[in-house]
Model the fold of this input.
Amino acid sequence: MDEQFFFYRDTWVEVDLDCITENVKAVKQRLPDRVAIIAVVKANAYGHGDFQVAQAALEAGATMLAVAFLDEALSLRGKGITAPILVLGASRPEDVNIAAEENITLTVFEQSWVTRAQRVLNPDTQLSLHVKVDTGMGRIGIRDEQELRMVEQEILKDSRLQFDGIFTHFATADEQNDSYYKIQLERFNFMVSNLQSRPPCIHSSNSAAALRYAEAQFNAVRLGIVMYGLSPSKDMKQEIPFPFRQAFSLHSKVTQVKRINKGDKVSYGCTYEAQEKEWIGTIPIGYADGWIRRLQGQEVLVDGMRSPIVGRICMDQSMIKLPYQVSVGTTVTLIGSQQTQSITMDEIAEKLETINYEIPCLISSRVPRVYKRKGRMIDLKNPLIPKK
Ligand SMILES: *Cc1c(COP(=O)(O)O)cnc(C)c1O
Done:
């Protein structure tokens, strides 16, 4: 780590933007030319940093971005992103004017939404819309073909509304068994066949489907988890047809090193008791950083060796059992690699009995994100230009 960074606590996330770029390029290479990549950067790009990931993905050939909420799209616009942005989730119909002004595409998920939007939308404006079809996810979207036809009519009749796309979302694309996926795809094809006109952008695939099912690629895919270098599921880990690299790593530094004696206790509740003379290191990361208390016992890397977290994780600090006396300032890697050892996102997910998606989202905004390109830290304000 260089010293030029702007934070005063030695705990940080490193995001290697070259991984993002390579992962997007590898997917793009496998897609037919007609299939565009929509880079999914919702939730601050799965905790990686929306602006930086968006720039890296666009540079690698993505042509559109997707977020969950209008606020996320507006935040990207505020940071200078001019590429098309689709809001995948439900926006309030009262907010259509701000979306139109900022050239942000919204999702129509029921007919009454269109009616309410039409009431408030300014004259002489253009609002780009994608229609969401619920083919079996049961979340948002139009389920009925008659309603879909009526929505299409309403949009086509209104000169302020642009029918730019139609899409759906799969519930099981990452699973071994493809029977439910097939039912959803068939339903989507049926719904699309009910349209009077085909909008320019038809998309159904998340990362899993994009890699697995050519017949579901239509003319765009929505790429999330694989762009970050993570597998959509355990089932799919062996299947991904290119070497993809995890972009996110989490690090800290030892702030104090102490020798404790047999019988000495560590942290709240005295749940840990030394069995012999031991070296204990304190690191400045805790549950307020998203490094939650359930991670007690999880190993971290120090000097390329695995060392367990001992005692309760506190709000801002944790203690680890060191392999030997290390110096204060030694780097501790909580997610990522040191020498020959690595702790993957999947290992942390397994420990927490959850999916890898949840882990980078969990690491809170108190932990600064720093960005790497070509192995070097880059200027945050200008992530595409490496610092000399
Ligand atoms: C989050 C999301 C995606 C991205 O899914 P991945 O599995 O991360 O590729 C795609 N489409 C929709 C509708 C989503 O909500």
In short: The first strand starts at residue 11 and ends at 16.
